[in-house]
């Protein structure tokens, strides 16, 4: 075979091996980054769920208090009309 062809084929194979190695390392590093990102997203979701649950409980308590106040005002208004 022609030495130029052998050199070209060997260089192409070397480039393919080098690219394969680079890409496999790139995937591993990004995999670590993505797993860390997924953990962080999960932590944010859990935090938000906790805050939403706390807000729901606060709103429920405030609504109960407002209902009690409205009932009291309605009773007072009805008592004033009767008297």
Number of strands: 0
Question: Please, how many helices?
Answer: 1
Shape, per Cα inertia axes: rod-shaped
Cα(first) to Cα(last) distance is 118 Å
Low-confidence stretches: none
The amount of helix comes to over 70%
Please tell me how large the radius of gyration is: 35 Å
Task: Name the helix and strand elements from N-terminus to C-terminus, one letter apiece.
Answer: H
- Report the β-strand fraction as a percent range: under 5%
Overall residue-averaged pLDDT value: 86
Please give the largest β-sheet: none
**Protein structure class:** mainly alpha
What does this structure look like?
The protein has one helix at 3-82. It is rod-shaped. It is built from 1 helix and no strands. 96% of the residues lie in helices and 0% in strands. It is mostly helical. The mean pLDDT is 86. It starts with a helix and ends with a helix.
For this entry, give a set of tags.
83 residues, mainly alpha, rod-shaped
Q: Could you outline the blueprint of secondary structure elements for this entry?
A:
Elements (H helix, E strand, L loop, with lengths): L2 H80 L1
Task: Give a quick rundown of the structure.
With 83 residues, the protein is mainly alpha-helical. It is built from one helix and no strands.
